[in-house]
Design brief:
heterodimer; A: 574 residues; alpha+beta; Immunoglobulin-like; 6 domains; twelve-stranded mixed beta sheet; 4 helices; 16% helix; elongated; B: 265 residues; Rossmann fold; eight-stranded mixed beta sheet; 39% helix; binds adenosine-5'-diphosphate; binds magnesium ion
Chain lengths: 574, 265
């Protein structure tokens, strides 16, 4: 017996492992088909997937031909080619170039075979001209291990916009200049950053207070060339001591206005000839996007301590937008802590991340053309001097590939004889990410009857669903086709189920069939037992073989190697 | 990472897989988004061109060495990977370049805007080459005594020349007669940066004239090359995260280690 095992081991040594594994699979298949084709013994094989998720970024593109201040469109496609769901999928975007920029976007979960198309609108990634490289990859968790996907790269070039009303070069990557004190008056609020889409306008208010003991006339003039873009409700205001006045500033653009960043000087003249110039930064985005879009952004400050921002979001596409998110990133120099930032208007949360404060806004549903506003204020702001632009990232809702969340694992149909009945067994693997209702409907032909044709189940993620239908057939022989319809709110599936019906035997032959069936049952059991034993033996021998093949430690050889090494390096040989 | 990081691939013994390592590592570093130049410095039997399907390209290296043209003009672009390549000259009798020509080449190479330059060499050891001109050297060996003895010799020479080096063990089969990891480490004395398994995909991809890393990206060989490329890129100051890519934990990792760990002393 020992000799036999050694001899077998030697034979196995010469066989490649693939052959052994192949043989094992063949036995498994044979074993199962023996079991099920007899129609007597049912073998239930449940395959449990244990390989983790494998998320691959298959495509990455960014919009080309962008000009300073325009929004950058980022598209990536993720596919899960593994066998388990990947959760906590996060898309990382690292931009290197004249103004580096990093962003992360949470893409939720991906079921096996599911694809997701991620679209982000990034503003703030185009604030200076030059060539940028963008690297992106996803991290995800599967089986409580964190994995990285492959990295994809793309590059884009930001050019300055063509001739027009001179958007400022370089677009203010460093942010607008600080607000300075004007002698005798206090600027209560002033927009320092405003953005809109070409062809639209925005209004905001400038408030100003006379601090002197005498009345004061305050004049406003807008820098040349910019009077088309910025208009004021009045050019001068007369204020009593201690009085506060309000002026409405309207930024207005034509559809033909060049996208870009404009820095508009506003001269405030007090007590003529003392003049103070404030610079208002104004960004125009091109209006060529479909779907969720930022159509305007105003950023106000007063010279004391409060900043406030208003973001206007519009659905400019033709369909309803669901579950959109907007991420606003504020530099960490803005505030002392996240509690100083309050955000309202849309459901949101504010956190402090490695790149500054992050406000995540939820846009749960937006009809075509509908506009919503997001507001935030920063109390006790700390960083006006270091102000740089708030950055916004838009994510369009992810699109799941349809049909992929329901997979048929097995459909077994009975072999029937005419005027009899049997069971159709169906097992289906549900790989969706949330619990949902799935309906099964088995439809037959006029000569048949299904006792329980409709069955509904609440399926939870990664659940194996098993359904049984009781079918009876009439006086019919041949192949009868049944149809199985599986429906859920997001996926539908149709399978045809052929049932073979053989003619009924005469009474005498039917009687003699009983012992034949019993014998067949015994024979199949024996076959199955042999198959299982053989598989176990092969698996054990394969393991033995793999272990035997490992390099063998040889003390004598190691000593010789050391001697060789010493001869080469010139160390003394003992 | 302002200057190009120059990596030389060498071995004293022939046929250990220098060209295979050079072409695949170059393709993998390129895949990370870096600008990579691959140079064939094997003047006796240049084969980078055969591995990459560029056998019809003009001899880039020779023209640059003899100052007929510049690196920028001579480099051929390998379409499937975007690699820039200076292939060698396929001819009957070949003139070995002078030391001064090689020195001039390396000075000029340092002025290019590639992120990485990988240099494939002929087997042996050329005393004329200024080893300090390279940022580091990868020694390739197979897990047998002749290859490891020659790796030991090179390691000794490079240590004296103060050239940073590491070892890639190629064509590993985990066979009983192979040298074990500890024996190789003992012999070589430096850092073993990775093991590459023997894989049929390698000769298959050489026949197809496409680096294995591109031709069969899912093989164990290609995944190991990917991991090695991230490791070497990070030494040049490039960022990379290795977490979760190749390190397997838990039951699965334990099962794997059961079959693949080398004998410990
Ligand atoms: N990991 C590997 N698996 C299988 N074959 C390999 C492997 N590495 C190299 N080879 C084979 O070894 C031969 C020599 O490789 P090559 O790279 O040309 O060596 P060198 O450049 O050192 O002379 C090639 O024919 C190649 O197919
Ligand atoms: Mg070679």
């Amino acid at each position: 017996m020992v000799d036999l095992v050694v001899a077998l081991g030697n034979i196995l040594d010469r066989l490649p492992v693939q052959v052994l594994v192949g043989a094992a699979c063949l036995y498994l298949v044979l074993g199962i088909s023996v079991g099920s084709s007899s129609g007597v013994i049912s073998a239930n094989v449940v395959v449990v997937p244990f390989a983790p998720a494998n998320i691959v970024m298959t495509a990455l593109s960014v919009s080309s031909g962008v000009t300073t201040g325009a929004q950058l469109q980022f598209n990536a496609t993720l596919n899960n080619t593994g066998y388990m769901a990947g959760t906590n999928v996060i898309v990382h975007v690292n931009i290197n170039g004249p103004v580096p920029f990093n962003a992360v976007y949470s893409a939720g979960s991906l079921s096996p075979n599911q694809g997701e198309f991620v679209t982000l609108q990034i503003s703030g990634a185009t604030s200076a001209t030059g060539t940028y490289t963008l690297n992106s990859f996803a991290t995800y968790v599967s089986n409580s291990v964190t994995y990285n996907s492959n990295t994809k790269s793309a590059s884009y070039t930001v050019a300055s916009p063509g001739p027009g009303p001179s958007p400022s070069p370089g677009g203010g990557g460093g942010g607008p200049p600080p607000i300075k004190a004007v002698p005798g008056v206090t600027i209560g609020s002033i927009p320092i950053l405003t953005s809109t889409v070409a062809g639209q306008g925005l209004t905001s208010q400038i408030s100003i207070r006379n601090n002197q003991s005498v009345p004061e006339l305050i004049n406003f003039t807008i820098g040349q060339d910019f009077s088309d873009l910025l208009t004021l409700s009045t050019n001068s205001i007369y204020l009593q001591p201690g009085q506060t006045g309000l002026i409405t500033a309207t930024f207005k653009t034509l559809p033909t206005t060049q996208p870009g960043t404009y820095v508009i000087p506003l001269n405030i003249t007090v007590n003529d000839p003392v003049t103070q110039t404030e610079y208002l930064t104004f960004t125009v985005y091109s209006n060529m996007k479909n779907g969720l879009q930022i159509v305007g952004q105003t950023f106000l400050t007063n010279s004391l301590s409060t900043l406030s921002g208003v973001i206007t979001i519009q659905n400019s596409g033709a369909g309803v937008v669901r579950n959109g998110t907007l991420t606003t990133m504020l530099p960490s120099t803005y505030a002392k802590s996240a509690s100083q930032i309050s955000a309202f208007g849309l459901p949101n949360n504010v956190t402090l991340g490695p790149n500054g404060y992050v406000i995540n806004w939820q846009v749960s549903k937006l009809q075509p053309g509908q506009i919503v506003y997001a507001y935030y204020t920063v109390l006790n702001q700390t960083g006006v001097e270091y102000l740089s632009y708030p950055q916004n990232i838009f994510s369009a809702p992810s699109q799941a590939t349809p049909l992929s969340i329901i997979k048929v694992v097995d459909i077994s149909s009975p072999s029937l004889i005419s005027n009899s009945s049997g069971y159709v067994n169906v097992s289906v693997f549900y790989t969706g990410t949330s619990t949902q209702q799935i309906s099964f409907y088995l439809a037959g032909s006029p000569q048949s009857n299904v006792a329980n044709p409709v069955q509904t189940v609440n399926a939870s993620p990664n659940q194996l669903l098993k359904k049984q239908f009781y079918v009876s057939v009439g006086n019919y022989t041949g192949t009868m086709l049944f149809y199985l319809y599986i429906t859920s709110s997001t996926a539908n599936l149709t399978e045809s189920v052929p049932v073979i019906i053989s003619p009924r035997q005469t009474a005498s032959t039917t009687a003699s069939q009983q012992p034949v069936q019993a014998n067949l049952q015994k024979a199949t059991l024996a076959l199955e037992a042999i198959a299982v034993l053989t598989i176990v033996l092969i698996v054990l021998l394969s393991i033995l073989k793999l272990r035997r093949r490992r390099p063998k430690y040889n003390a004598e050889r190691t000593r010789n190697l050391v001697r060789l090494r010493k001869r080469i390096t010139g160390e003394s040989v003992e | 990472m302002s200057k190009p990081y120059i990596i030389r691939i060498s071995s004293q013994k022939g046929g250990v897989g220098k060209t295979t390592v050079a072409t695949n590592l170059a393709a993998a570093i390129r895949d990370m988004g870096y600008k990579v130049l691959l140079v064939d410095f094997d003047f006796t039997n240049p084969s980078v061109g055969f591995h990459m399907g560029l056998e019809d390209a003009n001899s880039g290296v020779r023209a640059v060495l003899t100052k007929k043209t510049t690196i920028g003009h001579a480099a051929a672009v390998h379409e499937p990977t975007g690699l820039h390549i200076l292939p060698g000259e396929v001819r009957g009798i070949v003139r070995q370049p002078k030391a001064a020509e090689i020195n001039a080449f390396l000075s000029n190479a340092k002025k290019t805007n590639y992120n990485f330059i990988l240099i494939d060499t002929a087997p042996g050891y050329d005393p004329d080459i200024m080893l300090t001109r390279f940022d580091e050297d990868i020694i390739v060996a197979t897990p047998d005594v002749p290859a490891c003895v020659s790796a030991c010799r090179l390691s000794n020479k490079y240590d004296k020349a103060h050239l940073k080096h590491s070892l890639i063990v190629n064509k590993v089969r985990n066979a009983r007669y192979e040298l074990s990891y500890n024996e190789i480490l003992d012999m070589y004395g430096g850092e073993i940066s990775g093991l590459l398994y023997e894989d049929d995909a390698v000769p298959a991809s050489i026949a197809a004239h496409i680096p294995t890393y591109v031709f069969r990206p899912r093989t164990r060989f290609s995944r190991a090359v990917g991991e090695l490329s991230r490791r070497y890129a990070s030494r040049a100051g490039a960022e990379y995260k290795t977490e979760g890519v190749y390190v397997r934990k838990g039951l699965f990792g334990w099962l794997r280690s059961f079959f693949y760990t080398r004998n410990e002393k």
